[in-house]
Amino acid sequence: MDQQRPQVGYLSQLAIILGLTGFFLVAGAAALALITKLMHIPLSQLSEATSANGKTLGILNTALSVFIFLGPAIAFAWIVGRRPLGYLGLTTGINAWQAGLVVILTIAAMFLGGALTTLTLKIPLSSEWLAAAKKYEDQYQDMVMAMAQMKNTKDLLLVFVVLACAPAIFEELFFRGMIQQFLVNWSKKPFISILVTSIIFSAVHLSYFGFLPRLALGMVLGYIFYYTKSIWLNILLHLVNNGYIVMALYIASRQGKLQEAIASDSEALPLYVGVIALALICVLFVILRRVTPRRTDSPTGLSFPLKPIFND
User: Fold this and answer.
1) Residue 61 counted as domain residue
2) CB 240 within 8 A of CB 99
3) Which domain holds residue 285?
4) Which has the higher per-residue pLDDT, 113 or 294?
5) Residue 129 covered by a domain
């Protein structure tokens, strides 16, 4: 069999992605409804996101993520990949240099995100749209505040799993392991594929004020996976990013300043900080490519060389 041809056609793969995502979304919603019914918790009451049901909300949110993100990614890789775990980047090891660079990339991405928050605030928006965006942002902050009430180490560990570990693993397998991998293999245009994946990644979070920062984070995550083919590095960056936020919320919660900490989570930074952070990110990627062993095969069994950024 020609090694350049996938086992399943790309249009068929697209149909499989859409079908699996829809199926697991419906299955997750049904499971959520069943669980809340068995627990005698009305969905309307749960959606209020009060501190009394915050931990329950976090656990159910994590369970729903298993259906929405993990289920489709595992099923898709099993159907189309000759080596499913390899397809998702789970079998590619990492080295200490890569891990260290990814931690620095996380910090640089945070500064870039802060500058992009400033840019977002400068974008003209009608009063109606701005009011709607702020209303949803307030609802999101209320939900985070309900889940982030932490009084002791046990609470911290639970919130760390719910808000840091689960998203880092499930979202990376879905967006980078499945969607980006499919788009790159199909289009052979890494920049466009990573951009589209990052737009989808940011859009599903339904946050206007966080759209550009998450888009930038998605681009960084996308190129890490493209250059290294290891999803573990993506999970590491995502985990460090989310873990930093959880620890900040824990400290604020113990000090009785949780609401203020959540409100300042996306604190704006000067635009020049973003320019410096972007330049640093580019340099770090050059170094990352140098310390990453060159791979001549993809996890799908298809052969292609790694390309420079923007060289489509």
Assistant:
1) no
2) no
3) 90-291
4) 113
5) yes
Q: Give the tens place of pLDDT for each residue, 117-151.
A: 999 988 888 888 888 888 888 777 777 777 777 88
Asked if the structure places residue 230 within a domain, the reply is yes
Please tell me the predicted confidence (pLDDT) of residue 206: 85
Rounded CA-CA distance 8/300 in Å is 11
Q: Where are the alpha helices (DSSP H) in the chain?
A: 10-38, 43-46, 54-65, 71-80, 84-87, 96-122, 127-147, 153-160, 166-172, 181-187, 190-203, 211-228, 231-254, 258-263, 271-291
Q: Please tell me what DSSP assigns to residue 90.
A: -
- Which residue is it, tokens 């993100």? 69
Q: What is the DSSP letter of 53?
A: G
**Cα distance between residue 56 and residue 112, in whole Å:** 33
Number of domains in the chain: 1
Structural domain includes residue 307: no
- Write the pLDDT tens digit of every residue in 280-310: 999 999 999 999 987 644 444 333 333 333 3
